[in-house]
Amino acid sequence: MSHFYAHMARMKLIQRWPLMRNIERENVAEHSQQVAMVAHLLALIKNTLFGGNINPAEAALLALYHDASEVITGDLPTPVKYFNPDIAKEYKKIESFAEQKLLDMLPPELRQGFIPLLDSEQMDNEYKSLVKDADTLCAYIKCLEELSAGNHEFTLAKRRLEASIETRKTPEMAYFISHFLPSFELTLDEISEDENKL
Predict the structure, then answer these.
(1) Closest Cα partner for 137 from 172, 107, 110, 102?
(2) Which of 18, 52, 123, 124 could cysteine-pair with 47, CB 3.0–4.6 Å?
(3) What residues form DSSP beta bridges with 130?
(4) Is 4-197 in CATH node 2.40.260.10?
Protein backbone atom coordinates (compact mmCIF):
# COMPACT_ATOMS: atom_id res chain seq x y z
CA MET A 1 0.00 0.00 0.00
CA SER A 2 1.28 3.47 -0.90
CA HIS A 3 0.32 6.60 1.04
CA PHE A 4 1.86 8.92 -1.58
CA TYR A 5 -1.33 10.30 -3.13
CA ALA A 6 -3.10 10.50 0.22
CA HIS A 7 -0.29 12.87 1.19
CA MET A 8 -0.55 14.80 -2.10
CA ALA A 9 -4.29 15.26 -1.47
CA ARG A 10 -3.38 17.16 1.72
CA MET A 11 -1.79 20.00 -0.26
CA LYS A 12 -5.19 21.67 -0.13
CA LEU A 13 -5.01 21.74 3.69
CA ILE A 14 -1.75 23.70 3.88
CA GLN A 15 -2.34 27.44 4.00
CA ARG A 16 0.17 29.81 2.45
CA TRP A 17 1.12 33.19 3.95
CA PRO A 18 0.32 31.90 7.47
CA LEU A 19 1.72 34.90 9.36
CA MET A 20 -0.21 37.45 7.32
CA ARG A 21 -3.79 38.63 7.33
CA ASN A 22 -5.37 37.41 4.08
CA ILE A 23 -8.56 38.66 2.47
CA GLU A 24 -8.57 35.53 0.31
CA ARG A 25 -6.89 32.46 1.80
CA GLU A 26 -4.60 30.49 -0.51
CA ASN A 27 -3.60 26.87 -0.09
CA VAL A 28 -0.64 25.01 -1.58
CA ALA A 29 -2.80 23.05 -4.05
CA GLU A 30 -4.30 26.26 -5.50
CA HIS A 31 -0.89 27.91 -5.62
CA SER A 32 0.67 24.90 -7.37
CA GLN A 33 -2.03 24.94 -10.05
CA GLN A 34 -1.42 28.63 -10.71
CA VAL A 35 2.37 28.13 -10.84
CA ALA A 36 1.85 25.26 -13.31
CA MET A 37 -0.21 27.49 -15.62
CA VAL A 38 2.32 30.34 -15.45
CA ALA A 39 5.28 27.95 -15.96
CA HIS A 40 3.53 26.51 -19.02
CA LEU A 41 3.01 30.03 -20.38
CA LEU A 42 6.60 31.12 -19.65
CA ALA A 43 7.88 28.07 -21.54
CA LEU A 44 5.66 28.91 -24.53
CA ILE A 45 6.81 32.54 -24.50
CA LYS A 46 10.46 31.45 -24.24
CA ASN A 47 10.11 29.01 -27.14
CA THR A 48 8.01 31.22 -29.39
CA LEU A 49 9.74 34.57 -28.92
CA PHE A 50 13.18 33.97 -27.46
CA GLY A 51 14.54 30.83 -29.12
CA GLY A 52 13.98 28.52 -26.17
CA ASN A 53 13.57 24.76 -26.27
CA ILE A 54 11.56 23.95 -23.14
CA ASN A 55 8.73 21.42 -23.10
CA PRO A 56 5.76 23.44 -21.70
CA ALA A 57 4.01 20.29 -20.43
CA GLU A 58 7.11 19.17 -18.51
CA ALA A 59 7.47 22.66 -17.01
CA ALA A 60 3.83 22.57 -15.89
CA LEU A 61 4.23 19.08 -14.41
CA LEU A 62 7.31 20.06 -12.41
CA ALA A 63 5.43 23.14 -11.16
CA LEU A 64 2.52 20.98 -9.96
CA TYR A 65 4.92 19.16 -7.63
CA HIS A 66 7.26 22.05 -6.76
CA ASP A 67 5.89 22.44 -3.21
CA ALA A 68 5.00 18.77 -2.65
CA SER A 69 7.43 18.42 0.28
CA GLU A 70 5.26 20.89 2.23
CA VAL A 71 2.76 18.09 2.94
CA ILE A 72 5.43 16.95 5.40
CA THR A 73 7.17 20.20 6.39
CA GLY A 74 4.27 22.64 6.19
CA ASP A 75 4.76 26.09 4.64
CA LEU A 76 7.51 27.94 6.47
CA PRO A 77 7.07 31.70 5.86
CA THR A 78 9.82 33.24 3.71
CA PRO A 79 10.97 35.77 6.36
CA VAL A 80 11.56 32.85 8.74
CA LYS A 81 13.07 30.51 6.14
CA TYR A 82 15.63 33.09 5.03
CA PHE A 83 16.09 34.89 8.35
CA ASN A 84 19.76 33.96 8.27
CA PRO A 85 22.00 31.59 6.25
CA ASP A 86 22.06 28.94 9.00
CA ILE A 87 18.28 28.64 9.11
CA ALA A 88 18.09 28.53 5.28
CA LYS A 89 20.73 25.78 5.19
CA GLU A 90 19.00 23.68 7.85
CA TYR A 91 15.61 24.12 6.21
CA LYS A 92 17.11 22.90 2.90
CA LYS A 93 18.10 19.71 4.73
CA ILE A 94 14.55 19.33 6.06
CA GLU A 95 13.14 19.80 2.54
CA SER A 96 15.55 17.17 1.17
CA PHE A 97 14.48 14.74 3.90
CA ALA A 98 10.80 15.36 3.06
CA GLU A 99 11.44 14.87 -0.68
CA GLN A 100 13.14 11.53 0.01
CA LYS A 101 10.34 10.48 2.37
CA LEU A 102 7.78 11.12 -0.38
CA LEU A 103 9.83 9.17 -2.92
CA ASP A 104 10.10 6.27 -0.47
CA MET A 105 6.29 6.14 -0.25
CA LEU A 106 6.05 5.25 -3.93
CA PRO A 107 6.17 1.65 -5.16
CA PRO A 108 9.80 0.96 -6.22
CA GLU A 109 8.75 0.30 -9.82
CA LEU A 110 7.29 3.85 -10.11
CA ARG A 111 9.87 5.78 -8.09
CA GLN A 112 12.22 6.55 -10.99
CA GLY A 113 9.51 8.52 -12.80
CA PHE A 114 9.07 10.85 -9.82
CA ILE A 115 12.72 11.57 -9.03
CA PRO A 116 12.92 14.49 -11.54
CA LEU A 117 9.73 15.94 -10.00
CA LEU A 118 10.44 15.52 -6.29
CA ASP A 119 14.20 15.40 -5.74
CA SER A 120 15.41 19.00 -6.04
CA GLU A 121 19.01 17.78 -6.45
CA GLN A 122 18.03 15.73 -9.51
CA MET A 123 15.86 18.32 -11.28
CA ASP A 124 16.89 19.80 -14.60
CA ASN A 125 18.28 23.25 -13.74
CA GLU A 126 16.66 25.06 -16.69
CA TYR A 127 13.20 23.73 -15.80
CA LYS A 128 13.80 24.31 -12.09
CA SER A 129 14.73 27.94 -12.77
CA LEU A 130 11.70 28.52 -14.98
CA VAL A 131 9.39 27.08 -12.29
CA LYS A 132 11.06 29.35 -9.70
CA ASP A 133 10.36 32.31 -12.02
CA ALA A 134 6.70 31.25 -12.23
CA ASP A 135 6.55 30.75 -8.45
CA THR A 136 7.91 34.26 -7.86
CA LEU A 137 5.42 35.79 -10.32
CA CYS A 138 2.53 33.96 -8.64
CA ALA A 139 3.56 35.23 -5.21
CA TYR A 140 3.67 38.73 -6.69
CA ILE A 141 0.19 38.25 -8.20
CA LYS A 142 -1.07 37.28 -4.74
CA CYS A 143 0.32 40.58 -3.39
CA LEU A 144 -1.39 42.56 -6.18
CA GLU A 145 -4.72 40.84 -5.48
CA GLU A 146 -4.53 41.48 -1.74
CA LEU A 147 -3.46 45.12 -2.18
CA SER A 148 -6.20 45.70 -4.78
CA ALA A 149 -8.69 44.44 -2.19
CA GLY A 150 -7.39 47.01 0.31
CA ASN A 151 -5.15 44.72 2.38
CA HIS A 152 -1.95 46.69 3.08
CA GLU A 153 -0.47 43.73 4.95
CA PHE A 154 1.13 42.72 1.63
CA THR A 155 2.90 46.04 0.92
CA LEU A 156 6.35 44.94 2.10
CA ALA A 157 5.99 41.49 0.52
CA LYS A 158 5.23 43.20 -2.80
CA ARG A 159 8.39 45.32 -2.53
CA ARG A 160 10.50 42.30 -1.62
CA LEU A 161 9.11 40.36 -4.58
CA GLU A 162 9.68 43.27 -6.96
CA ALA A 163 13.36 43.21 -5.99
CA SER A 164 13.46 39.43 -6.49
CA ILE A 165 11.79 39.72 -9.91
CA GLU A 166 14.24 42.43 -10.95
CA THR A 167 17.14 40.13 -10.00
CA ARG A 168 15.69 37.09 -11.77
CA LYS A 169 14.07 38.82 -14.74
CA THR A 170 14.32 36.84 -17.98
CA PRO A 171 12.93 37.99 -21.34
CA GLU A 172 9.92 35.68 -20.90
CA MET A 173 9.24 37.09 -17.43
CA ALA A 174 9.43 40.64 -18.83
CA TYR A 175 6.94 39.67 -21.55
CA PHE A 176 4.59 38.12 -18.96
CA ILE A 177 4.85 41.22 -16.77
CA SER A 178 4.02 43.64 -19.58
CA HIS A 179 1.27 41.55 -21.24
CA PHE A 180 -0.48 39.70 -18.40
CA LEU A 181 0.30 41.29 -15.03
CA PRO A 182 -1.58 44.63 -15.34
CA SER A 183 -4.95 42.84 -15.46
CA PHE A 184 -4.52 41.62 -11.88
CA GLU A 185 -4.92 45.18 -10.61
CA LEU A 186 -8.28 45.63 -12.39
CA THR A 187 -11.79 44.74 -11.26
CA LEU A 188 -13.87 42.05 -12.96
CA ASP A 189 -15.98 44.76 -14.62
CA GLU A 190 -12.84 46.41 -16.02
CA ILE A 191 -11.37 43.24 -17.48
CA SER A 192 -14.78 42.16 -18.82
CA GLU A 193 -15.28 45.58 -20.42
CA ASP A 194 -11.91 45.36 -22.15
CA GLU A 195 -12.69 41.86 -23.45
CA ASN A 196 -15.98 43.09 -24.90
CA LYS A 197 -14.10 45.69 -26.94
CA LEU A 198 -12.05 43.02 -28.75
Answers:
(1) 172
(2) 52
(3) none
(4) no
